[in-house]
Specification:
Largest sheet: 7 strands, mixed
Number of strands: 14
Number of domains: 2
Helix content: 25-40%
Shape: globular
CATH topology of the largest domain: Rossmann fold
Strand content: 25-35%
Radius of gyration: 18 Å
Distance between the termini: 47 Å
Strand order of the largest sheet: 10-9-8-11-12-14-13
Mean pLDDT: 85
CATH architecture of the largest domain: 3-Layer(aba) Sandwich
Length: about 290
């Protein structure tokens, strides 16, 4: 990997209740090229949203985004920040992103690691933008669930909220099918496209900017045989109806981003739309649901 030029960085973060996570995550992501979501306490009701950005950059845009998040969520959160040494951050990121083998088929490697053959399918991600790298339990659950889809050969595939593009790339590599990768954040679309090209999957992974199910690209390609939605429990519940409407007969939805304690509410919302539970996977405190339309 070519050496990176040292740049003054800072880490910013807010701590918010679960109901405000979606709005504040969007605000932080609007100015940060790398973000993370962490449990702030043992009750799993508060979350710390952290981002890394160039020190002093985009301050006006950040203030506006936080103001909008406060208005939409009804929760005003204090922004905290600290200076982050560039080389130290990159070193810590690389150290925290070792090779990962997930399920029976997938190996995830950072660009900071020397090339080496791995079992099954190997996906390479830039360690500098390693959020969405497969370390999180929700992403690992989705990759394990994807393994069960190989024999079904779904033709039309959607990754809703693609982030780094890891699920879209995994599906494209395993199933040898084109995948539509949608995200509401422009930086996520750029990162996903960059990762797809890095893995020579850019001809199969189509990265597009879009706002959920109202995206023109989704409307043009629906219905789908396979949908990934690795988001959060509340938006998953809100989107149950459009998900069912855009899922082909016999199609499969892989839902993640929810804690084990939230399975019942997410499952109930989708059962009301006629979807049935086919499989449930656990990775630590996180659950992945595999649902199917009859």
């Amino acid at each position: 990997m070519s050496p990176r030029r040292a740049t003054a960085l800072e880490t910013i973060h807010v701590t918010v209740p679960e109901a405000a996570v979606e709005d504040y995550e969007r605000a932080i992501a609007s100015v940060c090229a790398a973000i993370g979501l962490f449990e702030a306490d043992d009750t799993q009701t508060c979350w710390r949203i952290e981002g890394v950005k160039t020190e002093g950059a985009d301050e006006a845009a950040l203030a506006d985004a936080l103001s909008i998040a406060a208005h939409l969520s009804g929760h005003s959160a204090a922004l905290l920040r600290q200076r982050t040494e560039t080389e130290g951050w990159l070193a810590r990121t690389a150290e925290a992103f070792p090779e990962q083998r997930i399920g029976r088929r997938f190996t995830i490697r950072g660009t900071h690691l020397a090339p080496a053959p791995g079992p099954g399918l190997t996906l390479t991600l830039d360690a500098g933008i390693a959020f969405g790298s497969g370390e999180h339990g929700s992403t690992r659950g989705c990759l394990r669930a994807l393994e069960f889809m190989a024999h079904r050969a779904p033709r039309r595939i959607l990754d809703l909220g693609t982030g780094s593009g890891i699920l879209a790339m995994a599906a494209a590599a395993l199933l040898k099918r084109p995948v539509l990768a949608i995200d509401i954040e422009p930086w996520s679309v750029r990162v996903a496209a960059q990762n797809a090209r890095l893995n020579e999957l850019h001809t199969r992974v189509l990265c597009r900017l879009g706002n959920g199910w109202s995206s023109p690209a989704i409307r043009a390609a629906a219905p789908f045989d396979l949908v990934f939605a690795n988001i959060l429990a509340r938006p998953l519940c809100r989107m149950a109806a459009p998900l069912a409407a855009n899922l082909a007969s016999g199609g499969t939805a892989i839902l993640a981003g929810l804690l084990s304690s939230q399975v019942r509410q997410v499952l109930a919302a989708h059962r009301r739309q006629g979807l049935v539970l086919e499989r449930q996977l656990r990775e630590g405190d996180w659950a992945t649901l595999v649902l199917r339309r009859r």
